[in-house]
Amino acid sequence: MLCRPLKDKKTNKYMSETLNIRELNSLVASKGEFINSIIRGMDQTIVGQKHLVESLVISLLANGHVLLEGVPGLAKTLAIKTLAQLIDAKYSRIQFTPDLLPADVIGTMIYSVKDEQFKVKKGPIFANFVLADEINRAPAKVQSALLEAMQERQVTIGDNTFALDKPFLVMATQNPIEQEGTYPLPEAQVDRFLMKVVIGYPTREEEQTIIRQNIANERVEVRPMLRPEEVNEAQKIVEQIYVDEKIERYIVNLVFATRFPQDYGLADLKSIIAFGASPRASISLAKAARAYAFMRQRGYVVPEDVIAVSRDVLRHRIGVTYEAEANNISTDEIITNILDRVQVP
């Protein structure tokens, strides 16, 4: 039996809630069975890209958003579209271009001659799953309009404020190779993404399977397996997954090691880290680790859950110096060094 202090919002007092881990495990096992169904459903459409599929599910369960980086043709669009079809949810795709306006994303007011009044025309942001394709090709004003909706989960058009549907997940993509004519996302805006996932090419066997399926025009019909309400229920269960105080300290140590590496025996990293991860990184690590534990049908978080999601959660939250760039030192290498040095509980 484990105890966790909870805060009573009305009386502003703390009360203890006894959590039975065995019961929580049973709850997660009974409600989390659909995760395997979703992954099997996506495997029927997408060849390979296991990490991409898992990252999307983690972000969905943790009620966050994901930034994907990869060259064109790696099934990024197909992945989120398939996920939306499996959940029977509304899907929209926004192609970011230099001439895009904020109204093209969130919507605008249109004057109706017939009714002699302005009416709200909602934009493509009003969906459960939104693909922001090549997000770095639109100006900063458009990027900020999307990211504000991501953070606030609501959109204001004129005098009207509309809450976005639940679940709500934005998958933004960007091409790491072609940077001409792009508007790179500022660090403060990138930080709002729960995870940044870098995906690579498929294996030889996977690419041969892709060729075979496309030549034969073998397309599997995607049928809904669950409803959006079931995802909302799963998100609430994820919020109940137990995080021990030792795990919390481990998360804090990982984040602080990006800010003060010399305190963790990593003095050689001090000259190559321009700035460390923000407090939002600690929150995101805990949320993503909970979602990962849910996928493994556990009602509690273990250090391996934190380690499994740490690269995707911290990758875009660490700034490197010119010295690191000159020596081709990536944030992934920095995170690996931190994981190797920070003591695991």
In CATH, the homologous superfamily of the largest domain goes by the name P-loop containing nucleotide triphosphate hydrolases
Shape: globular
Overall pLDDT score:
85
Low-pLDDT sequence parts: 1-19
Secondary-structure element series: EEHHHEHEHEEEHEEEHEHHHEHHEHH
Q: How big is the Rg? A: 21 Å
CATH topology of the largest domain: Rossmann fold
Helix residue percentage:
40-55%
- Helix/strand-derived category reads alpha/beta
Count of DSSP-assigned helices = 14
Euclidean distance between termini CA atoms: 20 Å
Task: Assign the CATH class of the largest domain.
Answer: Alpha Beta
Strands of the widest sheet, in order across it, are: 4-7-10-3-11
Number of domains: 2
Strand percentage, roughly? 15-25%
**Count of beta strands:** 13
CATH-derived architecture of the largest domain: 3-Layer(aba) Sandwich
> Could you give a short account of the major beta sheet?
5 strands, parallel
